[in-house]
């Protein structure tokens, strides 16, 4: 897949303990993005944060949080990102979904020549 120039970055913020049918929500989002043929997805685990609940979640040992913030980031062409949004409406009950414009400078897999 070739991806360069103008694109959209879709970022979904959820909690580590969020689930979809007894499986981690982030796992379901990544697998649906893959099935939809999106260019790629990454899940980043935060060390501290809070959201709409205003409850601070932290990785500090004394707090023993099991619900750290996660960000699922997907970059692809605008039409493909927008076509994926209805799936997020189904999946994300609590969280934040944002889209921002980006410019892709290089998108290459392993083994791709420079």
Automatic annotation (TrEMBL):
SUPFAM superfamilies: GlnB-like (SSF54913)
Pfam short name (any one): DUF190
Family statement drawn from the similarity comment of this UniProt entry: Belongs to the UPF0166 family.
Protein name: DUF190 domain-containing protein
């Amino acid at each position: 897949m070739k991806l360069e120039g103008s694109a959209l970055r879709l970022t979904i913020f959820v909690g580590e303990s969020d689930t979809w049918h007894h499986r981690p929500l982030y796992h379901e989002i990544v697998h649906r993005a893959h099935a939809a043929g999106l260019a790629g997805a990454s899940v980043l685990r935060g060390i501290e944060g809070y959201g709409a609940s205003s409850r601070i979640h932290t990785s500090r040992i004394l707090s023993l949080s099991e619900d750290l913030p996660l960000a699922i980031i997907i970059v692809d062409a605008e039409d493909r990102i927008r076509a994926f949004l209805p799936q997020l409406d189904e999946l994300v009950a609590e969280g934040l979904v944002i889209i921002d414009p980006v410019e892709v400078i290089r998108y290459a897999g392993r083994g791709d020549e420079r």
